[in-house]
Write a structure and sequence with these properties.
Length: about 375
Amino acid sequence: MNSSTIGRNSGLDTLRALAIVLVFANHYMIFVSNRPTFGWLSEIGWAGVDLFFALSGYLIGNQILSGIRKEQGGDARFSLARFYARRLLRTLPNFYFVLALYALWPAMRGTSELPPLWKFLTFTQNIDLKPGTAFSHAWSLCVEEQFYFLLPALALLIATLRKSLIWAWLAVAASLLAGMAVRSHLWGGLSEAELGSGQYYTQIYYASWCRFDELVCGVALALLKNYHAGIWARVTAYGNWTLAAGVALTALSWHWLLEDHYGYTMTVYGYPLLGLSFCLLLLAALSPGSLLQRWRVPGAASMALWSYAIYLTHKQLCVLLRAPLQEQGWGPESWQALLIMGTASALAGWLLYLLVETPFMKLRDRYVPSNYASSSRSRQTATA
């Protein structure tokens, strides 16, 4: 075990590894084999992005809310500048490196058109995104970055105004209801022929105002942990029951989405249902003694560490490998192609993590070691 895996939560690592496996299965079907190579996992694999959203919502929400609680306790001040610096040092290096490959190496994008670079640099590429463009899967990073910049400002505003917790919970509820209302309105403006087409993806699936549900659900879980300690202690005492409920609800939501992904009911209610399902799994992962937390899946910790890098690189890498493998007589559904592409995706993710992400994480730990800035009271104490 290396230092990067010390103190990690095995349950969260398992969920993050599951998320990247789901995304790989879905992208392999859409961009490589043109058929559900991994069966129903290929067809529902797009939900791996939603699982990433739920994980990010909880982890970032927990950082912000615990920071605000610490500030209210006295000696430390939650710093927006430090928070943003840490987030950007975490996400930008890998993203800019892969973006440079798309922009400077024509083979990387193939025949696909690359959207204007300013859209990537401003994290607005997901807005009015046309399916099939180069580096299109960066849309989810854009949604997350927009959320990262909005959430701490909103949380600090509520705290500064010294509003009660009810305002925080009202903000959570209002966000979910607003997302459902917007999707309902946009769905009503699509013709039957446009449902499930590129127009559906452009107007609903990729749009920021339609895709905050799982992120918000993750924040709600962080809010519960940080401000409702009694309730948190009670619910985490039944981790295995929560795991069973999460698995059951996830299976049910996946079944409904496979049956009617583009229909009105699942378009409007399916994403918050996924958010609830995944938050139950997150709750199980955070429950001491639960099977999800205690069960160390071989390789899950490494896959979790490399998941961001794998996400950025795997799709186009597999597309580039398809033709030469086909020339060797190894079609996209052959075990040789699956083994080579899967291994290459993991290896590319590891290299990007090792050579780009890790050095910047070390810089972050050296120059911006936390989200906190010393309060004036602590500085006065230090100089007394």
